[in-house]
Amino acid sequence: MAVQDAAWYHPTVVFDQPYWVHDFSRPQPEGWNAPTPFSVGRYDEARPNMYTTELFGGVRFHHVGLDLGAPAGTAVHAFGPGTVHAITVNDEDGSYGPTLITQHHLMLPDRVGQPPSGAPQTFWVLYGHLAWSSIEPWKVGDAFDAGDVLARLGDEHENGGWPPHVHVQLSWTPPSTVTCPVWSLPKTEMPRLRPTPTLG
C-alpha cells in the first residue's frame, strides 16, 4: 500500500487514506477484494484475463489509462483548468458507461516530480465509469478550474459493470468519437497518441 504524494495538480480522486495498487496482469482470486476502499489500476498494463465481454473481441487487453478506485459517489476533480469536450453514455457491456471528455491547454512537467515548464500543450482527458446524474448538467464548452468537481463515480449498474472507479485516459489527439481512440494499441503508438497519466 502507498500514501498519496503531493502533486503539482489537484488530485483527480482524493485518497485520504492508504490505497491498494492492483496487479491485473495476473488473474485475481475469486471473491478477493482490495483491503482498502481506495485503489489504483496501473497504466500500460497487459490484462489478458480481464476484458471478456463482446466489446473487446477477444483481442484487446492492453490498459492505457489509469484506474482510480473508490466508493460509488466519490467526487472526480479537475486536475487543472479546462473545458468540456464531450458528454455521453457508452452503454455496451464492459464499456465506460457515462463518460466525460475534457480539453486542456497547459504547461506540463518534463519529468515526474518536476514543476510545469515550457510552452503550453493541448491534450484531452477521458473520464469513464461515472454516474450519469453527475455529468448530465455539463454542456460542451463549459469551463472549469482545478479542483472543481467534474463528476462522481458510478455504481456497477450504470458504469459498464465494473467495481466503482474512474478510468482516466489522456490523448494528444482530439477524440474522433466519444470513446477516445481505442485503448488497445501497438506499444510503439502509445507515446505518440497518449501522454502518461503523470503528465510527464
Compact overview of the structure:
The protein has 200 residues and is mainly beta. It contains two helices and twelve strands, in the order E-E-E-E-E-E-E-E-E-H-E-E-E-H.
Outline the structure in words.
By secondary structure, the chain is mainly beta. It has a single domain, classed as Glucose Permease (Domain IIA) (Distorted Sandwich). It contains two helices and twelve strands, in the order βββββββββαβββα. Strands 1-2-5-12-9-8-7-10 form an eight-stranded mixed sheet, with no helix packed on it. Strand 7 and strand 8 form a beta hairpin. The protein is globular.
Indicate the topology.
Blueprint: E1 20-21, E2 39-41, E3 45-46, E4 62-63, E5 66-69, E6 75-77, E7 82-90, E8 97-108, E9 117-128, H1 132-135, E10 143-144, E11 149-152, E12 165-171, H2 190-193
Parallel strand pairs: 1-2
Antiparallel strand pairs: 2-5, 3-4, 5-12, 6-11, 7-8, 7-10, 8-9, 9-12
Radius of gyration over C-alpha positions, nearest whole angstrom: 16 Å
Give the ordered list of helices and strands: EEEEEEEEEHEEEH
Structural category is mainly beta
Within CATH, the superfamily carries the name: Glucose Permease (Domain IIA)
Q: Give unreliable regions as ranges.
A: 1-6, 181-195
- Strand neighbour order, sheet with most strands: 1-2-5-12-9-8-7-10
Number of helices: 2
Number of strands: 12
What is the CATH-assigned architecture? Distorted Sandwich
Shape annotation = globular
Q: What is the fold named in CATH at topology level?
A: Glucose Permease (Domain IIA)
Q: Report the major sheet.
A: 8 strands, mixed
The whole-number mean of residue pLDDT values reads 78
How far the N terminus sits from the C terminus, by CA atoms, comes to: 23 Å
Strand portion: 25-35%
Question: What percentage of residues falls in helices of 4 or more residues?
Answer: under 10%
- Work out the oligomeric state of the chains in this entry: single chain
How many domains in all? 1
